[in-house]
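Re: export button greyed out
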Amino acid sequence: MALLELDGLTKRYGGLVAVNQVSMRVETGEVRAVIGPNGAGKTSLFHLITGVVRATEGEVRFDGRKLTGLSSYQICQAGLSRTFQLTSLFPEMTARENARLSAQARLALRWQPYGGAAVFAEAARRGDEALERLGLTDVANRPAGLLSHGDQRLLEVAMALAQRPRILLLDEPTQGLSVEETLSAVETLSGLLADGQLTVLLVEHDMEVVFRLAQKITVLHRGTVIADDVPEVVKADADVQAAYLGGYE
Amino acid sequence: MTGWRLFFLAAIVLAAAPFGLPIFAMTLLTEALILGLLAMSLDLMVGYTRLISFGHAAAYGLGAYASGYLLLHTALPLPVAVLAAALLAGVVAIGVAWVCTMATGVSFSMLTLAFAQLLYAVAFKWTSVTGASDGLAGIPRHPGPFGITVFQTKNGYYYLVLVCLLGAYVFCRALVSSPFGAVLRGIRENEAKTLSLGYNTRLYKIAVVALSFALGGLAGALYSPFAGFANTELLFWLFSGQVLIMVIVGGQGTLIGPILGAAFFMLLEHVLSAYTESWALFFGLIFIGFVMFAPQGIWGLLTSRRPKNARI
Ligand SMILES: Nc1ncnc2c1ncn2[C@@H]1O[C@H](COP(=O)(O)OP(=O)(O)O)[C@@H](O)[C@H]1O
Ligand SMILES: [Mg+2]
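Workaround output, generated via the alternate export path:
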């Protein structure tokens, strides 16, 4: 059984079909990319999986458990941690506090009315570890709102990682970065994924980034899956080329 | 640690106040501390969670009427009646918050206002319990089975209020510094992100409203036996606005600032009302001045030269 299973997932906005009958399987340990031109429905697909918006039709299952209909905090607690395409942080808190608050959410003792110091210590340990893996230790004590755009993107990944998720969902981690920033971010991310411990669902529109990071690629075009295979096959696919040449930038 | 040293210093000065101040000043100070407790309780919502309530008079009124009713109709000793009234305000708040947190932003504020207005209307109509427009008068301070008469004196009552305020302060400080408080701060800065991190933000908001109402209810419960009466003015929307102004003028998100804001408000009312009928106008102007030029409030101004000590 695959870790994450989508079955006929559909989202309609009035007459517009943002996500159309998407079915896919993500196995444990896999790094899967979802690509497609702007407006293809990639972010909508993430919103459906993580409960930010409700599906019109279809079902999401995680480790055999149905997630459809749950609230986004429940879905996160099931082990799916995500980042947003538009950076979403706590700008007045330091990077360390951001990561700590994120890690705290997954600690069993977080509701305990006493012993807060121990909860903070464990959360900070997990948060610092994640910051370190993304090379953010040097800026850990700076307010998140004052970090460079590149570091903010990575901080959001660190926050998701600090939750020790069973699957990490990244929505365009290199969105809005300069060419140099993108290169260094991809370097950091590929280091993170190298040991094959993480299961990742990655949205990207930058093909180069995708081919560097992903083992399997799902191509979305106007809400519909038009290809779903290993990078070499997807690269050679005529439909994919047509979609990208037709509607991309 | 400087913060706690300041806390103990303030506690000692306040505890010594009855030995140095004349009776009428003690009456003012007692009322200022009660209002300070109310403003501090609202700060949990406004300053720490960015839940702007336009209806905090509801907490005060609930506490005031409940303790007044219990003291008039039962033989419960004063402290028990006061605590029971605070508890009642907190429990009622769970239901209120459950409804109000269906909305966010301005809609949330409007719902809190609507709820306070509802209570205001009930207080006018439910004659057998609230005394309608006459309110509750002649509220006694029962000594209870152990014959505790100390609260019947002016200074004894002052110490009861002081202990409640200091206790509530320590409780609030611990709360906002705890992991729970960190989540509130997350909600304040970015609620959508806090939700997506796996926090049931609505539950956290309901919890903080209930705690805020319980402490605001405690303030009201202390007020009615102090004044000897409870009337619908305590539930009026204008009063809700005044408490919000105390929080903002004092310095939101600091706990101590709103206490100072309440004292400042009382002092100004006392001084200005001697000269002019329209003292509220001056207070309005001062409020506008703070919002425009010192949004960090009185406590923010006092601590701005040493920002490291701003948090205690
Ligand atoms: N809340 C919404 N209301 C109406 N249309 C929406 C909404 N969100 C997304 N869409 C539409 O759905 C389509 C897919 O958008 P999106 O998922 O953001 O694409 P991508 O992330 O692939 O760029 C777009 O045409 C977009 O305009
Ligand atoms: Mg997108």
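The longest helix of chain B spans residues 23-49. The button fix ships in the next patch.
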